[in-house]
Amino acid sequence: MLQETIRQQLIAIVGSDFYKDDPQSLVTHSYDGTPMLQALPDGVIYPASTEQVSAIMKVLNTHRIPVIGRGSGTNLCGGTVPVEGGVVMVMHRMNRILEVDLENLVAIVQPGLITKSFIAHVESLGLFYPPDPSSMAISTIGGNIAECSGGLRGLKYGTTKDYVLGLEAVLASGEIIRTGGKLMKDVAGYDLTKLLVGSEGTLAIITEATLKLVPPPKYKKTMLAMYKDLYGAARTVSKIIENRIIPSTLEFLDNATVRVVDDFAKLGLPLDMEAILLIEQDGETEMVERDIARIEEICRSEQAHSVSVAESPEEALKLLTARRSAFTALARLRPTTILEDATVPRSKIAEMVLEINRIAHKHQVTICTFGHAGDGNLHPTATTDARDKEEIHRVEAAFEEIFEAAIRLGGTITGEHGVGLVKSPYLEWKVGSAGIEVMKAVKQAFDPHHLLNPGKIFAKQSRKRVVLQHG
Amino acid sequence: MVKTEDRLTVGITSATAANVNTHGTEPACSSPRSPQLQLAGKLKLRLDEDQLTNCMRCGFCLPACPTFRETGIEAESPRGRIALMKAVTDGLMMPDQSFEEQMSHCLGCRACEPACPADVKYGQLIEQTREAIEEHTESHRWWVKPLRQVVFKQLFPHQKRVRLLGGAMQLYQQSGLRKLARSAGVMKLLPAHLSEMEQVLPNASSKGIVQKIGSHHPAKGMKIATVGMFRGCLMDMLFTETNIKTVELLTEAGFEVVIPDTQACCGALHAHSGETEDARSLARKNIAAFQAAGVDYIVSNAGGCGAILSEYDHLLHEDEQWREGAVWLAKRVVDISDLLIRSGKLATAQTKEQPIRITYQDSCHLRNVMRSADAPRKLLREVSGAEFVEMFEADRCCGSAGTYNIVQPEMAGGLLERKMEHANATKAHYLLTSNPGCLLQMKLGAAKHGDGQMQVQHIVDFLHERLVHNSSEKAKEQA
What we know:
The complex is a heterodimer of chains A (471) and B (479).
Chain A: H1 4-14, E1 19-20, H2 23-27, E2 43-45, H3 50-62, E3 67-70, E4 87-90, E5 97-101, E6 106-109, H4 115-124, H5 141-147, H6 154-157, E7 164-170, E8 176-180, H7 192-196, E9 205-212, E10 219-227, H8 230-242, E11 249-254, H9 255-265, E12 275-283, H10 285-301, E13 304-309, H11 313-331, E14 336-339, H12 349-363, E15 367-372, E16 377-384, H13 389-408, H14 427-446
Parallel strand pairs in A: 2-4, 3-4
Antiparallel strand pairs in A: 1-2, 5-6, 6-9, 7-8, 7-9, 10-12, 10-13, 11-12, 11-15, 14-16, 15-16
Helix pairs in contact in A: 1-3, 8-12, 9-11, 12-13
Chain B: H1 4-20, H2 35-46, H3 49-54, H4 66-71, H5 78-89, H6 97-105, H7 112-115, H8 122-136, H9 144-155, H10 159-174, H11 177-183, H12 192-200, H13 209-213, E1 216-217, E2 225-230, H14 234-238, H15 240-252, E3 255-258, H16 268-272, H17 276-293, E4 297-300, H18 303-310, H19 312-315, H20 320-330, E5 333-335, H21 336-343, E6 356-361, H22 364-369, H23 374-381, E7 386-388, H24 404-407, H25 409-425, E8 430-433, H26 436-449, E9 455-458, H27 459-478
Parallel strand pairs in B: 2-3, 2-4, 4-5, 6-7, 6-8, 8-9
Antiparallel strand pairs in B: 1-3
Helix pairs in contact in B: 2-8, 12-26, 15-27, 17-20, 21-23, 25-26
């Protein structure tokens, strides 16, 4: 518990209903969506305004108390677990849409806004906000910005970073900064907006965001291509891109995933397929029809066993359901589901999938793979049991090799989930020691006393990268 | 990835052990006889470790949870409550009074279960927790414990007493006593939410369905199957007419109906409130009663009863002697709407009124446990001359939830207010539902927040008026 005088200062800012340090509040803010991680904070605070956030930060800064910004705690990298104690700052009360500017096609929102509510509101006005993380029914815009969330539409429309035009944020000192704005072009100095997006709560507390909106696509078409040969599916992905077609969605599910998806969703998918691609294109009717026809040709030329185009929106929805239920279905296989986030250049998808299968086999663990193949972002997912320590060790050894393989193929250790705590030992593999040093210097400039989400991104020790013996 | 030992260090030792004793919880070794410690021990014993482990904390349950939506507080969510249960079994926190309160805040609507990717059986976890709490608690409000004693142990397990109470209520309602009590201001002595409830209670009856129409009812026309009717306690005392109409709908649809008089209360209220042993003994009586009646289906017209009946297999899974019978009963349980749809024999209904608008409030347990949301809607859409309007968030709990609206009036009141905003927005003439608790709650809602135009009815009453009459008339025409 914090010292009584500090508690009183915090309570004076937000009121006694909105600062909590009873065991119940501490336990329920000791975790996020990441398996097997838990640590208790010293307190939980619910600010209602930027001014309150600033005043809170001044108190915490004076007493050198860590602060962990938190939305709904759905992240999968340990990003909101208070590993060094401190105060968890829950942004749920700051959840308003402040403005939708129909002349400039931007919206100004508070960080605690639920992503799906925002998307629904924007769509009711005939506009489109593309970032669609699978957790959007509960995740917050602030959390999406902190982790730079992706989703099924990332391939064509980009991810959260491509839609954040400006931010208001509170620094560790309590100072308020504003970056960017309603403008599409801005090169006045370093791009602090982009720097804060994906900074995982380690540089500042985001209190307001200006988001870009776009016109919605007029028309869309969905298709499913099934393969008996993994390579064929993977080559199709590369070939679609090579042919300069960028579908709005291009998803991959491997055999193991197809089996569980079908088992639970009862879609009647063929179980002898090595891989399934789910492809969607949107835009002007003529262009969509042309692209879908061309994609179908490419699928067939790569020996797709069957290709079916959804005839109705209902059928399309059924196909998308198959993909969206992948995580759902996998979670039912074993008690613990560890979903990872290895990402490679799109031309290396086939190699990466084979590597994952080889590594899983080598370590005798079950890893199913699905993901956003179109943008190279795969989700190898281990189904295991946290209580079996020996198996968990094998799972972790397998993931270490998977990250190694991703880097070797020119990829990265995370495409959309963030580094947080769980991937911090591997960050150096991706950015190098000079990269880490620059990042640390940036951190120093924003947060000299290391109060903002300590223990994240930067590991105490990097894992040594060994050249692995294959075979 | 952080290695296992790092994760576990972060998780269970450094932060937690270091922090927990400084946070006002009792150290685990302070007093071996403290009730909290006993409760912790009981929870460790009773909570299903697999289910606790299955929760992967993804947060998908949060938007489905009414109490989380009402408060926005993590502890008021299924993920939060499971974390609290797990923290107790991990020795991370003591089950203090706020823990007990949090567990009783849950409506038990089970909306989190269909939303859960990992298929965590939250309903079982909350029942196990409440059972452990009930054995140890000292923290009920002064009137709750004696009331529970009377209701759970002295009243519901005894059908005759239920009817006796029905008779007493009938006397009170019809003899002028009610008028007298109301005008004398006696009602003001009750908490506001109880006196409001008193005003919407329908006329009770001292005679249940069997006393009124007997136990055996042959099918009309070709018999499809034999159905055992589960009559319920509240349904039989307050809605006897609805029970009778249920039988008529079923016989009309081609089912032979048997109502074993030896059946007991379903035990739902007991199980949801932690009186699990009582629930088990009621379950045994019901299994015996329906097995003796030799039925193909057991039909329920109350979502709450139907749900617990369909989970008798879980309730008695440790009871070797009754396990098989429990499975037998559980898989035969079906809601009236589902059975009517399955029969397909009822004539298309036609409403004789001016074109009317109808809407439907789901019974949480019918929807989330029995997973039946389509059948009632399909039936209502078939009523010609009536326009079915889907109510926004019809799948959300109305706040009734067994005895919840009596013991948690504030949360229940908030939920009801929101519910009635959506109900009123449909501008429906009829608001229909499939469970007596919901029915009373919605009647209360319509009386408190309605525009006076909306009638609240059990779906059976509504359909009976339009289906049975229509069928009989059609039959007459054909003859």
